[in-house]
Design brief:
The protein is mostly helical. The chain has one domain. The chain contains 13 helices and 2 strands, in the order H-H-H-H-H-H-H-H-H-H-H-E-E-H-H. The longest helix is centred in the middle third of the chain and has 32 residues. The mean pLDDT is about 90. GO terms for molecular function: electron transfer activity; oxidoreductase activity, acting on diphenols and related substances as donors, oxygen as acceptor.
Length: about 325
């Protein structure tokens, strides 16, 4: 049995806590990218709508969820700071302008729907409608740029791999948003979302291939990782999931399409984590073992997380159960 004294000297139950926290960190990011990803995707697809009623339908679809989904980004930042504080400091100092840009875009995305509903004036709604689209488009692009720069250890803000990764993540959010709207809308609007989702899925597969090719060509240090069976399996899985997603949408199996989207998101996150491993900050040369905090706080934090994380997950189960099913045709954001 683990006692209080051993908490300061040995990992909890002999577990590889450094590796588990690395995996947990990317799981949390995957939850954010999947759940807030469909919010971003809906924001991008908002730009395709000209009918005011359809715009209200899209806003009503994400209304109960988007602010809760952003919690996962806060949890990701907190987990990174708590488990790998030196990496947190390095990343936020290296990419601080990018971080501020992400926060600004997130703020715009959150503010825009609220302001959109304040007036019936056409010019006002056009302004905030564009703001909603811009915030929803810029945020996932910058997140993809950040993650790819983190992966390759870039010291600058803009890199070819980062830009390709940003575009790929952006398209993935459209895939996510189209599947979500398949669950939440009806009729002609749902049919159009289905068609756009199919096209986005094909674009996402192309983005993954081009981004991985760019990493292979420009990052010699990562080339050996591409021979890993896990990397090969994840790429094959991605192509398979795209096929499942497309077939599911064409057969109006929207829950299956949404589940395939979840697997695509976590597959992408797993791909990044596998390429990064065993490093957690390639630029600083920090491996997971180098950067993890000392044993006692790591053990205590692991105990608290094992209690709190299931509660957070249960909250989201309740939230999504309460607002499941298609929205009413007359429902609005407020």
């Amino acid at each position: 049995m683990t006692n209080v004294g051993s908490l300061a000297t040995k990992p909890l139950f002999g577990l590889p806590l450094a590796e588990l926290w690395f995996a947990l960190l990317f799981f949390i990011f995957g939850m954010f990218l999947f759940l807030d990803g469909f919010d971003f995707g809906v924001g991008v697809l908002f730009a395709t709508r000209t009918d005011d009623h359809e715009k209200e339908q899209l806003l009503a679809a994400v209304g109960p969820f988007w602010d809760g989904n952003e919690v996962w980004l806060v949890v990701f930042g907190g987990a990174l700071f708590a488990a790998f504080p030196s990496v947190y400091a390095n990343l936020f100092s290296r990419y601080y302008l990018l971080m501020f840009a992400i926060l600004a875009a997130l703020g715009l995305r959150g503010l825009a729907p609220e302001m959109y509903e304040e007036r019936e004036d056409d010019r006002w709604r056009t302004l905030w409608g564009y703001s909603f689209v811009i915030g929803s488009t810029v945020t996932p692009f910058l997140l993809g740029l950040f993650v790819m720069n983190w992966l390759i250890g870039a010291t600058g803000l803009i890199t070819p791999v980062g830009v390709l990764g940003g575009l790929t993540v952006l398209v993935l959010t459209v895939v996510d948003g189209a599947a979500f709207l398949g669950l939440k809308t009806r009729g002609a609007l749902r049919d159009d979302m289905r068609n756009r989702g199919v096209r986005a899925a094909v674009g996402y597969l192309g983005g993954v291939i081009i981004t991985l090719g760019s990493i292979y060509v420009t990052e010699p240090a990562l080339r050996s990782s591409f021979r890993s069976p896990l990397i090969v399996a994840l790429v094959i899985l991605t192509a398979t999931l795209i096929g499942i997603y497309v077939v599911a949408l064409r057969r109006n199996r929207y829950y299956a399409a949404f589940a395939a989207t979840a697997a695509l998101v976590f597959g992408l996150v797993a791909l990044v984590a596998t390429l990064l491993f065993p490093y957690v900050d390639r630029t600083a040369g920090l491996t997971i073992r180098d950067a993890i905090i000392s044993t006692l706080p790591l053990n205590l934090m692991s105990i608290m997380t094992s209690v709190l994380l299931p509660i957070v997950l249960m909250y989201f189960v309740v939230l999504y159960s309460a607002f499941s099913g298609p929205i009413d045709t007359e429902e609005t954001y407020r």
